[in-house]
Amino acid sequence: MKTATRLGRKVRALRTQEGMTQTALAERLGISAGYLNLIEHDRRPLTAAVLLRLGQVFDLDLNAFATGGDAQLTADALEVFGDPLFQRLPPAEPAETPAPDAPATDTAAAPQ
Q1: What is the per-residue DSSP string for the chain?
Q2: Average pLDDT, the chain
Q3: What is the sign, positive or negative, of the torsion defined by CA atoms of 76, 30, 19, 38?
């Protein structure tokens, strides 16, 4: 993983500073403890959704997670997602995964 995306150490430091276990933080973030472990060891990316939940759980400025040129991107994202429009939206539903034996569907229009 690229150096610029290594945020796992920051997540782990924040969690241990607050005296939380991985299981406790994972529950508050709505993810599994195993997935949090992978994030903390930089084996999975820190997604925007998880980053936003971290900000809510710990009431912190998300710019603390920005590095270098990412600071402006983070500021822009926070401005966009801070719009009241996003506060009225219900949480996103997880995408449905088709059954392994389900036939493939063609979304292109059939010729007439």
Answers
A1: --GGG--HHHHHHHHHHTT--HHHHHHHHTS-HHHHHHHHTTSS---HHHHHHHHHHHT--GGGG--TTHHHHHHHHHHHHTSHHHHTSPPPPPPPPPPTTSPP---SPPP-
A2: 74
A3: negative
Task: Show the domains of the chain with their CATH numbers.
Answer: 3-82 (1.10.260.40)
pTM, full prediction: 0.56
Cα–Cα separations (whole angstroms), residue 9 to 3, 88, 94, 103: 11, 32, 27, 42
Tell me the pLDDT tens digit for each residue of 4-55.
Answer: 457 898 899 999 999 999 999 999 999 999 999 999 999 998 888 898 899 8
